[in-house]
Write a structure and sequence with these properties.
about 220 residues; Heat Shock Protein 90; five-stranded mixed sheet; two-stranded antiparallel sheet; 5 helices; about 55% helix; globular
């Protein structure tokens, strides 16, 4: 039996800390690798919409298609900039950051897929690194819904909500699509799980005839 007042020696403490740092490093390397893969998928969505526009365009309509393509490329650049990794500890405005994110997602991903975006973001502040990792999670969820939730595009809507309550941020991505049988799976699931671990957050999924709803609960002080 161990003495309740005994303390681990310095070697044990160092070994424990190194093991934890290794785990975090592996999680974050996985997140970055899979996130870059998802960026490629987002470009695939953009490319498909461009091909559709230029196939339909002709004569004077071609200039309209070119203008639309230019706007989408600019929006994708803005989205990529928002998602760039930044571990700066300075706090930033949650409302401003995620409203910009929703605007960029709408222009780069959702509008080309004929999906409307709704957003309700509460005011508050978070360290920049937490905002960027939450943004990666929301982007993954939104992109996945845009690709799979709407075989019939009529009235397609994705709603993003962020609320600050009792020491936690509650973030939700909900769609009115067909409803996934397994909302979290494959490479997307690995991205989300790795990001959630790095934030000390929890994920909850719910799907049915009214669509799919994924919620993230993140403590303001990460675990």
């Amino acid at each position: 039996m161990h003495d309740i007042s005994s303390r681990p020696n310095d070697g044990d403490v160092r070994a424990h800390l190194v093991a934890n740092l290794d785990d975090v490093s592996r999680d974050w390397e996985l997140v970055l690798r899979e996130s870059h893969h998802r960026m490629k998928n987002t470009l695939t969505l953009l490319g498909a919409s461009v091909r559709r526009d230029f196939t339909r365009a002709g004569g004077r309509d071609m200039s309209v298609a070119v203008d639309r393509l230019e706007r989408r490329i600019v929006a994708f650049g803005r989205l990529y900039q928002l998602l760039s990794d930044n571990d700066d500890l300075a706090e930033i405005s949650v409302e401003a950051f995620f409203e910009n994110l929703c605007s960029a997602l709408s222009a780069a991903v959702l509008e080309p897929a004929c999906v409307r975006c709704e957003a309700a973001i509460e005011s508050g502040t978070l360290p920049a690194w937490q905002c960027h990792r939450l943004a990666l999670m929301l982007t993954e969820l939104v992109t996945n819904a845009a690709k799979h939730a709407f075989p019939n595009k009529n009235g397609a809507v994705i709603r993003i909500e962020m609320a600050n309550h009792e020491g936690c941020w509650f973030c939700t991505v909900a769609d009115n699509g067909v409803g996934a049988t397994r909302p979290l799976q494959g490479a997307g699931s690995r991205i989300l799980e790795g990001l959630a671990r790095s934030l000390g957050a929890r994920l909850f999924g719910d799907a049915g005839q009214g669509g799919t709803r994924i919620s993230i609960t993140m403590p303001i002080e990460p675990a």
